[in-house]
Design brief:
Elements: E1 3-7, H1 11-22, E2 26-30, H2 36-44, E3 61-63, H3 68-72, E4 78-81, H4 88-96, E5 105-107, E6 112-115, E7 118-121, H5 122-132, E8 140-144, H6 149-153, E9 158-163, H7 167-177, E10 182-187, H8 190-208, H9 210-213, H10 220-226, H11 228-248, H12 253-256, H13 259-271, H14 273-282, H15 287-294, H16 301-316, H17 323-333
Parallel strand pairs: 1-2, 1-4, 2-3, 4-5, 5-8, 9-10
Antiparallel strand pairs: 6-7, 8-9
């Protein structure tokens, strides 16, 4: 039995504890410093998670962040990071207070960042944080793929890709977390896996806008029934742009056609917060109005990514290379209506 420490009690971090526990591991779920109220709710409500609306395993140990150091000092065999992309700096610095550099780290969080005017993946950003704190060779893997938290929590058959430049390490972690309903593939292309998992949030917003973008004159009823041609066009172009952008950041093209790319794009486009925001943008709402009126308490990862990468992308890339991405970023960062040049 291995000890797995999951940091982040949101929907995905909590859902991830379920296959870990089912694989007979000793699993501890630690909320961040912002999740004390959620931790109290989960424990008070007999392990019912308020976002997932299902019960977490009774074998799971659930703790507030104030107990983080105590659990860390028990030497977990694996640390899983499931915080938001905005929390990467915070969690990296907190782990550094106790980290020896030997414990494997598995990153669930999706996103990209700009550091010193350079695009970096979140594993690269974590490595920079750890090096700054004195650890030169942290052992970081990533797990990505088409996985909605509620589906995983209800044990729907799910596949993910584990990435590490050391494929043996990825496979050893796969043995810890895989179950009959949660299967793993493996990749050395950690850059490509991370890039695809991040930018698919932008493209799922664009595909989510399909209905509103399908016709300037048709009625809502007609668009509701017949927007699929438009969606297919946007999916095709989205994949083409993902290939271009992934190659630009030194990831592999074939990764775009795998679980972290095409697979994750599909599940996000049909059933996620990014797609929902895209629907509002496609209907003609400006981002700030849509966010404030319809999704005030929701994290929209694609929008966060647009704000993070937008200034550099708008400066460095020609629109003819990635027209959909630039159109979406311009709409969000400049708070203007989404327009596609067909």
């Amino acid at each position: 039995m291995k000890k797995i420490l999951v940091i982040g009690a949101g929907a995905m971090g909590s859902a991830f504890t379920i296959p870990c526990a089912d694989n007979k591991n000793n699993v501890v779920l630690i909320g961040t410093h912002l999740e004390d109220v959620m931790i109290d709710k989960i424990i008070k409500n007999n392990y019912l998670h308020p976002s997932l609306q299902c019960k977490l395993p009774r074998s799971l140990k659930i703790q507030k962040f104030e107990n983080f150091s105590k659990e860390f000092k028990k030497k977990p065999d694996l640390i899983v990071i499931a915080v938001s992309s905005k929390g990467i700096d915070w969690v990296g610095n907190e782990i550094s207070k106790y980290y020896s550099g030997e414990i494997p780290i598995l990153l669930i969080t999706k996103g990209l960042a700009v550091v010193k005017n350079q695009f970096v993946t979140l594993p690269e950003k974590l490595i920079k944080i750890f090096k700054k704190n004195g650890f030169n060779k942290p052992n970081i893997s990533a797990v990505k793929g088409p996985c909605l938290a509620v589906g995983l929590a209800n044990k729907m058959r799910t596949s993910a890709v584990l990435a590490n430049t050391n494929i043996s390490m990825a496979k050893s972690l796969g043995k810890l977390i895989a179950t009959s309903y949660y299967s793993t593939e493996f990749s050395k292309d950690i850059i490509g896996v991370e890039v695809c998992a991040a930018i698919k949030n932008i493209y799922s917003m664009i595909i989510g806008a399909s209905k509103g973008l399908s016709s300037p004159s048709a009625s809502s009823e007609i668009k509701n029934r017949h927007y699929f041609n438009t969606a297919a066009s946007l999916i095709h172009r989205s994949i083409s742009e993902m290939v271009y952008f992934t190659n630009f950041l030194k990831g592999k093209e074939e990764t775009v056609y795998g679980l972290a790319g095409l697979g994750d794009l599909y599940v996000s486009a049909i059933g996620g917060r990014n797609s929902r925001m895209g629907n509002y943008l496609g209907e003609g709402y400006r981002y700030e109005k849509a966010k404030n009126e319809f999704m005030p308490n929701d994290t929209v990862e694609g929008a966060d990514l647009a704000f993070e990468l937008g200034p550099k992308i708008l400066k460095d890339f020609k629109k003819k290379k990635i027209p959909l991405m630039i159109s979406l970023i311009s709409a969000i960062c400049k708070n203007k209506k989404l327009e596609i040049n067909w």
